[in-house]
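Flagellar motor switch protein FliM, pasting as requested.
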Amino acid sequence: MVDVLSQNEIDALLAALSSGEMDAEELKKEDTQKKVRAYDFKRATRFSKDHIRSLTRIHENFARYLTTYFSAQLRTFVQINVVQVEQLPYDEFIRSIPKMTILNIFEAEPLEGRMVMEVHPNVGFAMLDRLLGGAGAAPTKIGSLTEIETIIMEKIFSRAFESLQEAWKTVIDLQPRLEALETNPQFMQIVSPNETIALISLSTKIGDTTGMINLCIPHVVLEPIMPRLAVHQWFASQKKSRAPEEQEALERRVNKAKLPVIAELGSSWISVSEFLNLQVGDVLALHKATDEGLEVKVGDKVKFIASPGTVRDKMAIQIHEIVSEEVEEIHDE
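Structure tokens follow.
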């Protein structure tokens, strides 16, 4: 940050220059000297601001999907938001989490390497309490998980990774898979201590219980797709064309859609008083000659010209002309 001199400091500086106490040439030399900035190699900057912004957008979507999923599973109020996305050494992340926590170690093909979703015990045990019929309160004392509790946790978090797959779909089609669930950070070593990681922190509220969910993604895992995390590349991927399978599925659904088809015999105009005086046996003259074909409308557009008739004691029409787009436009005018 640049220091701003007060008026008294400026006056004192000018007075010192005038009296010869300070040399202007020496001041110029000081300005031309190269500024040295300390660089900590243990905290190497591997993610640019563009990468951080892209990771933030992706995991904001992840937070929304996760909120919907947990709300449906726990049947209670759930709110999840991205608080911060930062880069730091893996060792610093391990030292920042509780000694007893819930660590979901997972892989996501085609990316190589392991990642971690750390769930604060308050949040994890509140989920467990809710799934087992409780109110979803955090425990006063946190102990180790039993085998049954571990299985329940693995099931709910395995399906939570489907939300991660959906959030990353704009960048890469991931196949996340839970590998193991640990409770002691000391038994988890997915990368070297000095490896830079992206840490995505999600504030989580379940009922009245609050806590954090942290997503730890090592730089070495994301390195092959780093160019895709550039902002211009990320937005360009939003406009990609549909896959052939998606296109075919869409065509099949459109082909099965039902549309109203109306064969219009003709039309006429009458006054309100004539309408009120209509009786059985009255005849209305239509604005159409008997030798003219019937207009067949699909929706509100005239698409065919047909002749009336019957088929197996039912009224029917026989199409003998297809109305082209040009003719239809002239007809509408």
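Note for the archive: The longest strand covers residues 78-89.
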